[in-house]
Amino acid sequence: MKTFEQSITELETIVAKLEDGDVTLDESLELFEQGIKLSKSCQKMLDSAEKRVSVLMANDDGEMVKEDFTAEE
User: What's the pLDDT at 73?
Assistant: First the structure.
């Protein structure tokens, strides 16, 4: 499985090829499909990371406590 960084690099390469316009329609469609798959994979990795993030916050006594990250914060 590719890392997030590898997927982003590959996605950037695909975008650059599509922007250059030096590919056929069939190649463009194939690259676009690969890009969509990479984008969805990256989003899943980000969602997973967000669920694991913890935030340190001070309680009323000034002590640091660990709380789960929530999107509302």
Answer: 47
